[in-house]
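Hi R.,

Here's the chain you asked about this morning:
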Amino acid sequence: MPLVSGWQTVAHLFCRWPFTVTAAPPDWLANPFTGQRVAAPERGWWQIPDFDPAVGDIKLIWELSRMDWVLAFAQRARNGDGEARARLNDWLADWCMHNPPYRGPNWKCGQEASIRVMHLAMAAMISGQVQQPTPGLRDLVHLHLQRIAPTMQYAVAQDNNHGTSEAAALFIGGSWLAALGMPEGARWQQIGRRWLEDRAARLIGADGSFSQYSLNYHRVMLDTFCMVEVWRRHMALPTFSGRWQERALAATQWLHSMVSPLNGDGPNLGANDGARLLQLTDSAYRDCRPSVQLAMALFADQRAYPQDGPWNHALQWLGVPSPQALAPQPGNRAADDGGFAVLRRGAAMAMLRYPRFRFRPSQADALHLDLWLSGDNLLRDAGSYSYNTEPKWLNYFGGTASHNTVQFDDRDQMPRLSRFLFGDWLKTSFIEPLMQEAQATHFAAGYRDGHRASHQRRINLRDSHLQVVDEVAGFARKAVLRWRVAPGSWRLEGQRLMNGAHVLTVQASMPIVRCELVEGWESRHYLEKTPLPVLEIEVQQPGTLTTEYRWAV
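And the predicted structure, written out as tokens:
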């Protein structure tokens, strides 16, 4: 939520929802949408429920306390704004007064505390306060590390970005305190370094895939590693291991391969809670280029994007030299550790998601296909909307029906066990390697689920169109193929869906029982849902469905 201009302005929660910022600090314990305050905020953090119906989504309480505003204040102060430093100190003092140590909702999550530590450290770098922080800032970092360290094992057990964030905070904050002569700092620094090494080796595959199978959580992890490396260099600390560097580079290349160089947007895959760390530019939330550019400079000594733009701002603010070498443009990529295949031809990109689950999946999205053309998302993933909403929306956005794939017998591909957990994880039973030929780029994968239904999908990406061949069998009653197209003036004639130069046709080897254009939903930002057209093709016999999506060239 960066502050943009003036002492009363409109910022955006989760980079989407307007929120008026004034000189006075906000209410740290209230839902900014409704004004409803957390009851009994003097309770210990362990007594605060995860889902309080009176307040709503606790992420709405946490968002302002992630302290991304300290970055904005620090930027203003460095640019000569005489009031910015005083405002920053006022807001921090107010936060401390209303959030006494380990009391209330803003101390509940170790990862939230860790994000504050990282943002405070980066703001201190920007404002030149690392070597001589105020006693209050030093003590605030110390209090946070005392909260994070005891629950580090819980964070690690999640096998997600809780572990990477909390290890990063211990490393950054611990080394900072050690440099200031506080004896506990060296121990926390050592613990943080050890877990950063461990998390990189375990959670990031050799091909760069991250354990959460999510583009946005991948960015969160990568921004975290960037802050660690920027801090390590600033403090002249020993380098991390060769493996850590290799995994950080692989994760950088993974994200680079997924996003459009034209606008930085990429597939809306996996869980997406609106998180965005290290906001040093006013670029759009879905623009990943600032993260890719910083990571590429740090871990590859290359630039991902040649021309000047907001993706270079983080390098400038953090004192990272801009490399001379330019990274190769993203091309085809098979990331089998995570189950991703990226096919590129000219301005077109197709991304297939297939099941390679070493870690818990958050969505039933096997064989989902995204299609992009010149930075525009033509065939779309729904996203995840909200972690605290009605069951019908939790089930929809995480379920098979919100993806470009086949659904059997009106059920999800895997049974849902809880809000964040599916059971009976799918395994890829069929795969053909990614191949690029003169006329087309090919890839294929398939699975058989716990009910013995099977789906094999072959992709052929050409310069002017995409062909998808789906073989389905083993279902009891019906199979429904869905294509979630970009909003527009679509019209359906038989089995031909048209919108200007964009034409999608479906043919089948078995009778098509239903071919219908219906309304679906997507969430491009957290807590946002908007309608979009969905083509549904229903069959009741096994066979082959062939889809072609053509566009003008």
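Residues 2-6 have pLDDT under 50 and may be disordered.

Let me know if you need anything else.
M.
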